[in-house]
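Researcher: I'm preparing a figure for a lab meeting and need a structural model of a single chain. I don't have an experimental structure, so a prediction will have to do for now. The sequence is pasted below. Please return the structure as tokens so I can convert it later.
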Amino acid sequence: MTVLIARLADRAIIEIRGAETLGFLQDLVTADVDDLETGTAAHSALLTPQGKILFDFFILAIDGGVLIECVEDAVAGLVQKLSMYRLRRALTITRVEPLAVAAVWDDTDLPALSGAKIYADPRNPELGLRLIATEAAVAAIANQPASAYQAHRYKLGIADAAEIGSGELFPHEACYDQFASVDFTKGCYVGQEVVSRMQHRGTARSRIVPVDANGSIPEAGSKILAGGKSAGTILGANAGLGLALVRLDRAAAAGNVLSVDGVSLTMHKPAWAKWADASPARGDED
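Model: Understood. Here is the structure written out token by token.
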């Protein structure tokens, strides 16, 4: 099988260097990164004080610091926010250019690539690998469009920053609790109290789930109905595949029969999902 490689042009790299890097991030982000070993990565986020995902990213440990892979549009805001929290720590926080990011899946038999940083996507083994290298190196080996990787993610039911947005969703809604992207045993971090309360009380009623349709799924932002009631929103569409934020209780009350702009949707619970099925009895709650 030929390895599939897609350059992700909407991704960028921030570097943090300094002896206190992991401790600094441990106090801020959702994942446990205190003992992250060089060459391994965590998927994590920086939250608002209200517990919603402000920035979604990967943290790759390197000698003397970390590389943070995030969406391009978030670079300036994330650097600014991290710099604000740095205080007197002896750290440098800078964007690294020119570096490119690629996703690698379906096979791990990669061609030799000098100087590249390659790591397993920590969210799910089926997502494959992430690769950071020069623009020229990535361009030379990429053999798939970014839309092919998007379709791969959508089939698995796993969202990236493009679907999660900023300041919109709680970690449970983005399924962080299913990927170890949020840790419930480490000490405090920004927004931790809200997230811990949701975990303890089991109050996450909406989840990002994969959906498909016989025809094309309407564009992101389209409203989903279940039994005539509002039940969620399309977050991303790729022809007949999509990701949607769905009120699971309302979907269950309607027998998981969903529609959007007159198009019938089929909702799937991903194979990796460990959350309890919603009770239809809760379908009329706000």
